[in-house]
Amino acid sequence: MVTFLLLLALLSPQIPHESELKDAVSAYWNLMTKGEKAAAMKFVLPNCQNDFVNRGEPKIRTWRLLSVKPVSDTEAVVAVQMEALFKQAALSAGFQSVEKRETWVWDQNSWKLKVAKPSIDAIAPLFSSTTDRPLPKALQITPSVLRIQFFSNAQVGRLHIKNGLPQAAELVSVRFDETRFDLVERPSLVEAGKTADLALRYKGTETDKNLESQVTLVLKQEGQEKLYQVPVRYNYFSDGARALFGLTEEQARNVKRGDKLRPVVKQPETGKQTPTPLAPPAKRP
Known about the structure:
Strand content: 35-45%
Oligomer: single chain
Number of helices: 7
Structural class: alpha+beta
C-alpha cells in the first residue's frame, strides 16, 4: 500500500515553481480587487493583452485561492472564489459569490495569465453555474452598437437576439456591406425565452480607426415583421485603449495590426513629497 501511494505521488503531475505561481496569482488578484487593471496587465501573456484590455471586469470585493491543478510542467488551472458585482446583474442581486477558473502559463521565467476570448462561449465555462434570469418581455437586439475591435485576431462582432416573448421569432433577412463583412453565424429561428447570436466578421484591410457601417435585420413574429438597424463600428479603437497604451490620437491613427504595444503602467506613489523650494529673500529698499 505504501509503495502504491509513493508510486502514485511520483506519477502525479507536479508544478515547477509552484510558490512563484501562487505569488503571481496573489499579486494579480490583489491588483484586480483594487481596480488597478492596467497594473495587473504585467501578469498577462503578451499575446493575450489586447483581449484582456477589451474584457469587461466585475467589481471585486474579496477573493481567495481555491485550488491549483497542473496541466503540464508549464501550465496550470487556478481556481479562485470571489465576491463580485457584475454590471449586467440586477441591482438587487448585489455582490455574488462565484468561482472562476483560469489558465496560467510559465513563460520566460515567470507565470502569466492566459486570457480567454471575451465572448459568451469563452466566458460562460469560467464561472460556476447560477440561476438563469428570465429575459425582459420583449424582442430585442443587443448591443445597440456592434463593435469589432481593431486588435481582435478574429475580427468578429456579435449581436444577441433576445426573445423574451411567448412566441418564436423568425430571422427573415440580414443586410450588410458584403464587400467588407462575412456572415459567420446566422440563426433562422429564435425560440421563445431564448437568445441566439448573429456574428459578422470584418474581412477588409483598412487601417483607419473607428469606421462606420450598418447591419439591418428583419424579424418576424406572429405574422408581423419588424425592422432593426444596428450601427457597426469596425476597426474600433476606444479612447480607453488609447490611454492605456499611452498613445496620442495621431499615434493611434498610425497603429497597424501586428504592432506590439505595451500598456503604460502608472507607478504607485511612494509617499515622498518633493520639498517646496524656498522663496528668494526679499530685496531691501
